[in-house]
Amino acid sequence: MKISCFRTDLANAVSNVSRAVSSKASIPALEGVLIKAYGDKLNISGYNLEIGITTDIDATIQNEGEIVVSARLFLDIVRRLPEEIVMIETDERMVTYINCGHVDYQIVGMSSVEYPDLPSFEQTDGITVNSKILREMIRQTVYAVSENTAKPIYTGSLFDIENGIFKIVAVDGYRMAIRSENVDSESKNKFVVPGKTQLEVLKLLTDDEDNVEIIIGQRHITFKIKNYRVISRLIEGTFLDYNSTIPKDKKTELVINTRSIIDSVERMSLLNNDRVQSPVRCNFSDDEIKLSCASAVGRASDVISVPIIGESVEIGFNNRYMLDALKNTDTDEIKLIINGSLAPMIIKPVKGDSFLSIVVPMRLANES
To answer: Last residue of a domain, which of 221, 244, 267?
Structure first.
C-alpha cells in the first residue's frame, strides 16, 4: 500500500472511528484501526465486536492495499505531524512508513486477515431523519437508559415507528424518557438500540439540516451520517409496554419556568454527594413549591411562587434523576403533573407531546 492524503482529514477520521476500538481485546487486531486503500478512497474502520464505525476520506493511491495499525499510536502520530500532506506506505513485512515534512515514522502493523469482518446484513426496513432532530431525540432520552446489565433489554432505547410517528423510549426503573417526532415513513417497526451505540451516534451528529439514513435489519442497524457509518447489533428481548405505565390521572398540575426549578433543585443538591443521598423534598401547596433537603452535611430550603391547580402534595425525589429529566427538556416552560406522593411525576411541554419524562419519587422519612 502506498498513499498520500490530508493530515486533517486523516486525523478526524481516525479520531472518530477509534471510539469503536477495544482498549483491551482478546483479539490483538481489535485494538487497531483497519485501513483499506482502493480506487481514490482511504477507508478507515474501528470495531469492538458490538459497535463498528467506518468512514472514507479522499486520498491519492499509488498502490492499493490493507493494513491494521495500533489505533492509539497511529492517532497520536497523525495528530502531531507538522505538515498537511501525509505519505503512508507499507511493505510485505507489515511495517508501516509514515512521512510528513521532515518527520518519519516506522511502526509495526498487522495483516488485515486478522481483523474480523464488520457485520453485513440484509435491510428489512429503514427511515430517514433530520440530523438535528435525531441528535435532540437521542440527547433527551439516552440519560434514562439503564446501566444495569441484569436486564439487558433496558441498556438500550426502544425505537418505535408507527403511523408516521417516530418515538425513542428509554427506561431504567427509576425514570422514563419519551421523545416523539413526525417522520415521512409508512414503516411500522420496533427495535432496541444499545445506549452505547446511541452515544457514539450522538457524537457524530451535528445541528445542520443533513439527513441521517437509518438502515434496519433483523439483528443489526446502521446509521449513515454524512461519510460515516455506525454499525451495531440490536438488543433482543421484550421491552416494557411504556404506554400502560404513564399515569392517566392529574391530581396536581402546574406550569413552571424550566430554569427556575432547575436552579432551585441544584441549590438543594449541594447537600448531596456520592456518599450522601437525601431526597429533595417538594411541597406543592398554596401556589408555592417549598423545596428542602436535609442530610448529614446540613439543611437547605427554597420557595418558588407558581400557580398550582388541584390537590396539595408533598413528594421527594432523587436530585440527580430529577435534574436529568429537567435539563433534557427543550422548552422555556414545562408542565408538571403529580398524582399523589408515591406516584411518578410527569414532565412534559406546555403544548404538544414532543417529549415526556417520568421520575419515580423517593419515600420520605416521615411518611407513615
So the answer is: 244
258, 329 Cβ separation under 8 angstroms: yes
Write the CATH number for 182: 3.10.150.10
The CA distance from 43 to 57, in Å, is 7
Report how far residue 255's alpha carbon sits from residue 307's, in angstroms, rounded to the nearest whole number.
7
Cell of 229: 457509518
Place of cell 403533573: 337
In a domain, 119, yes or no: no
Q: pLDDT, tens digit, for every residue of 92-119?
A: 999 999 999 999 999 999 999 999 999 9
pLDDT digits 0-9 by tens, 318-337: 999 999 999 999 899 999 99
108 and 144, same domain (yes or no): no
Tally the domains of the chain.
3
Q: Tell whether 73 and 156 lie within a shared domain.
A: no
C-alpha 24, offset from chain centre? 23
pLDDT at 347 over 90: yes
Buried b (16+ CB within 10 A) or exposed e, 253-279: bbebebeebbebbeebbebbeeeeebb
Range of the domain at 340: 246-359
Cβ proximity of 19 and 53 under 8 Å: yes
**φ and ψ at residue 366, rounded to 5 degrees:** -90, 10
Q: Of 244, 260, 277, at which residue does a domain stop?
A: 244
